[in-house]
Fold this protein.
Amino acid sequence: MRGKVRSQKLRTKIMMWYITFALLPMILIMIYVYFYTSQLILSGMNRNMDYQIERIGQSLDDKSGNYYTISNMLYTDETLWNYLTADYTRMGYEDLYLYVDTLFLNIRMLYPEILSISVCSTNSTLPKDDFYFYVINEAEANERFPQIGGIMQMEKGSDGNLSFSRFMNRYETGIYRNYLTVSVGQEEIYSILETGEEGFCIVLTDEEGIVQISNRAELQGKQINELGLENQVVRRRSTEHCGELILYADTQLFRKPVKREAVKIFSIFVLCAGCAFIAIAHWSRRFQENVENVMKGAGIISYGNFGHRILYTQKDEIGLIADSVNKLAERIQETIEESYEKEIRQKISEMNQLQEQINPHFLYNALSSISSMAISNGDRETALAIVCLADFYRLSLNKGNQELTICDEFKILDSYMKLQKIRFGESIMLEYLIDEGLLDHKIMKLTLQPIVENAIHHGRTDDAEVFHILIRLYGQDGKTIIEIIDDGKGISPEKMMELQESMDHSEGGYGLRNVNIRLKMQYGNEYGINLESELGFGTKVRIELPG
């Protein structure tokens, strides 16, 4: 579990490195590209506005310049002047119309956009045809042409067409006042105002700020301050003869391409960041799995399974670590095997030595008993003792095998107890309380006899009428339990502590220590002997064996 947590932390660090060293720089680059692109777009839009107003203004100047050139030509036409100032009360109009018709038609042929050329005059003798000539009085002249002088004045007629007018008098004083008017179709001028750009508003104002013409018909005739376009981007340009040209651009016109580019940049960023994140996440997951694989293998090896090998085929740093751990486990396994073989040989030698300690020791005691019996009894009892002794040795030797069944171990104990009864008579009583289903289980030979012998030797008192020994055999928690319980004199706490401390040491000892060490050597450290004793009430020896 610890290894898994560490690998997750490592993966988290990898993602934090990605955010810090990849994602944040990408965000900063995105912000820079956004602002840089926005500036480029705004600059392009501003240049476009400058270009459009200059183009429109130049086109208007070219058109109005043509009309101004026409007006100058007619202004300097001496013949036309003489006709306009003549008194026609005593003469006809034939020469006038012949000249004017020819002159004006030639001009219109050169400039097809001109609808008409006319003269407004205070000369009441001129013909009132309302085509070439318009006769007006002084009051009408002042009202219609209040500011007009040598410079052309543009105005919009009731029919929507545009007219360019100028004062024709070449002298400050004169009998009559004459005004030349050139009328042009509105489509000619409106075509100039077309920009082809959505969101552009073009107005052409007079000196009083009134919109004369515009690409938005609803604005014509309004005061410039009443248009409601104050918050829009503005470009202004004066024309030579037509007033002031103003170009308005909707702020949304600037924002839309910026937003469009922002969406593009953000989409590219999300795509790149997402792909990078997926790649990093996939790589970090693979990296985490590889690390966990090595750590899992190392954990298995750390718990003692030195035969385990970490499977890792990639030739990277993790592969080198895995290979090093495998080599270390291999070397440890070889060392352990060598040490284990050496230890086994040593323990076999120790067991043989211990086994050799048992037989002679018992033999000495048995022969001593037989000797005493032979002195006090006849040959019949001696013979019986010898037979019991022979049975004991036959069973205990077990053809050289270290293990036998619990049933056979009980037979060895019975042979031993027959010898003891020959010696002590009915003062020793052995009882069994056993689970017969466990009799076929294996046990180290000569496990019970040394314990019973130890109980008789140390627990029996001479003044006791009967010394009881109970053998219990049962299963518990997957183990086979044998208990040897006596009602002897028991063991003092001090002696009990000493026995407990020396139970796992074989040197210089016999009996309980000997049996305990043999059991642990054969079955493992979780098995062996446990002691319980109370002074004056007896002792219980608990033997735990594999189930």
Notes: The longest strand covers residues 467-476.
